[in-house]
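If your schedule permits, I should be very grateful for your opinion on a structural question. Please examine both parts with care and let me know of anything in them that strikes you as inconsistent. The record follows directly beneath this note:
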Amino acid sequence: MRLPYIDPNTSPTFSEDQTEARAILDRVSARRAPRPLQPLDLTLLHSPPVADGWNSFLGAVRTKTSLSDDIREIAICRVAICNGAWYEWGHHAPLAKAGGVTDEGMEILKMDKCEKGKGDGLSEKQWVTVRFTDEMTRNVKVPDEVFDELRKWFDEKEIVELTATVSGGFIFARKIYFGLPVAAYNCVSRFLVALDGKSKARHNRHIILDSTLHSITSALCNLAPFLQMSDLLT
């Protein structure tokens, strides 16, 4: 880790009078229990509000979705391999195996280029998970044919949960190298692009030419790539 781990017992950030920070520390510790705080936690806790948000988001992704254990851990493991995050792989590979991934399946997951046909250790649903995860992580955009295949195996709730899991795994893998804000908004962009299915260039832009309209400007943003008009008579 490029940053020193914080010691909650000696850091002034968590002194007796810092009640909000100490409450955050308690929440993070509760999620990890009975294990101690992990190196990830001891880095995030340099900024208690970030640690708190991270703890809530990743806690939901890890423990509160409807995804089966094998699907969740396959997604996280593939993010780890695609990003070279061996610390993440070390934590989640045993969980994938415990969740039902076979030994042959684990060997497939370790491949840099994980292509169907290189082994029979994964089910069809698991292969779809691998392909979706790889597209999101390596290319950001997910081809229509991959997403169409995903729909055959997952309902809308599960697709949101899987997409959030892949995005969350990317944050974990990238934060050490690029910093938390970059990692967090890589998460946001990957989630949106994966589920959008359209690049900016493919979106229709409706330009309103000069005309006589009984209208007022309700909001103005120079960064917006579109104009939105509404009928004031309705």
